[in-house]
Amino acid sequence: MKTTLALAFIAAGLVLGNAARAETKGSLNSTDEKFIKEAAMHGKAEVRISQLGIGKADDKAVKGIAEQMVKDHTMLNTELETLAKSKGVDLSVAGDPKADKAIANLEKESGKDFDKAFLKELQKGHKDTISAFESESKDGKDSEIKAWVDKSLPTIRGHLDHIKGTMKGK
Questions:
Q1: CA dist., res. 14 & res. 137, Å (int)
Q2: What does pTM read for this prediction?
Q3: 134-143, Cβ contacts within 8 angstroms, sequence gap of 24 or more
Q4: Domain formed by 29-168, architecture
Q5: What pLDDT shows up at residue 161?
Q6: Angle at 110 between CA 50 and CA 97, to 5 degrees
Q7: CA 141, 24, 30: angle at the middle one, nearest 5?
Q8: Domain locations in the chain?
Q9: Amino acid 103: pLDDT
């Protein structure tokens, strides 16, 4: 009798333990999961576009922005990958077709024309990112994702301000 009771408690503990783990992994609603996947895709695209900027920018200030984008977005991407993993979200998604097209168009440019097109692309990307992050901050359900979004937004807004300021000087 004692053995049966002990086994029942052990089994209950295993079931409850597995249920608790299931809540952490794979418990996101579809909106939060979609946000994480899209944010990761766009974050990786931002790094790729900015790496091109490091190699092709004519102006020192534009090259500096590209370097800052690579640094900051690589850090944000790493944080997001860790968060996604803790939530059971697989980020092995396909590339961003819009980014592929933007890179192809930027590769055709050079000199000041590249700098102008590059800054315009960064500006558009950051506006879109801010909009998506603000929506997730307002409407997202997962508190950890919302906390990461709220922590990341000032950096992304700062990028947009820096890009706009550099554009005014061009």
A1: 35
A2: 0.82
A3: 136/32, 136/35, 136/39, 139/31, 140/31, 140/32, 140/35, 141/28, 141/29, 141/31, 141/32, 142/28, 142/29, 142/32, 142/87
A4: Up-down Bundle (1.20)
A5: 97
A6: 45
A7: 40
A8: 29-168
A9: 96
Residue 129 confidence (pLDDT): 97
* Integer Cα distance of 61 and 32 in angstroms: 36
Q: How far apart (Å, rounded) are the C-alpha atoms in residues 137 and 148?
A: 9
Separation between Cα atoms, residue 81 and residue 73, nearest integer Å: 12
CB atoms within 10 A of CB 68: 15
pLDDT of amino acid 22: 38
The backbone torsions φ and ψ at residue 3, rounded to the nearest 5 degrees and listed phi first, read -65, -40
Q: Which amino acid is at 140?
A: G
Cβ contact 25:134 at 8 Å: no
Instruction: Identify the residue whose tokens are 């000032």.
Output: 154
The three state secondary structure string of 16-83 is: HHHHHHHHHCCCCCHHHHHHHHHHHHHHHHHHHHHHHHHHHCCCHHHHHHHHHHHHHHHHHHHHHHHH
User: pLDDT at position 23, please?
Assistant: 40
Low-confidence residues in the chain, pLDDT < 70 = 1-26, 93-94, 170
